[in-house]
Specification:
Order of helices and strands: EEEEHEHHEE
Shape: globular
Strand order of the largest sheet: 1-2-3-4
Largest sheet: 4 strands, antiparallel
Number of strands: 7
Strand content: 15-25%
Helix content: 10-25%
Distance between the termini: 22 Å
Radius of gyration: 13 Å
Number of helices: 3
């Protein structure tokens, strides 16, 4: 279940695609560049807020279900996955959407549930190997 308005004071309360982990996220438009701040337990990750529009556009171009492929920054991302898009040199920002060195990965874990919550994508919610596709 998701809730919250996406501000620092009232962050979105989300769960990963399998439903196994809860986290919060909010949009910080005062940051340069504007960012999505993700809090997972005591760990803070941040992503360039452009990721929402860019990932949605990329998913529309794919036209089908795309595997999430979440991976830590120091592990390779499988080709053709959301995670690979989030760090590819040919994506719209030319590399990592993750902004905090050492914590730039897991794009495919934390951005898809927010895109689903915002009504811009669908996710599968299986125990493993989830996928997503764009709506709209």
């Amino acid at each position: 279940m998701t809730s919250g308005s996406g501000t620092r004071e009232d962050p979105w309360r989300l769960t990963t695609a399998p439903g196994s982990s809860a986290f919060t996220m909010y949009r910080d438009d005062a940051a340069v560049p504007p960012e999505l701040v993700c809090q997972v337990g005591s760990t803070r990750l941040s992503y360039d807020a452009r990721a929402l529009d860019d990932l949605h556009a990329w998913l529309l171009a794919q036209g089908e279900w795309v595997p999430l492929g979440a991976a830590d920054e120091n592990k390779p991302a499988a080709d053709g996955t959301v995670e690979a898009f989030g760090r590819a040199t040919d994506n719209p920002i030319g590399g990592w959407y993750g902004l905090r060195k050492g914590y730039r990965g897991r794009f495919g874990m934390y951005i898809p549930p927010l895109l689903e919550h915002l009504g811009r994508a669908e996710l599968t919610h299986d125990a493993r190997n989830n996928s997503m596709r764009a709506i709209g």
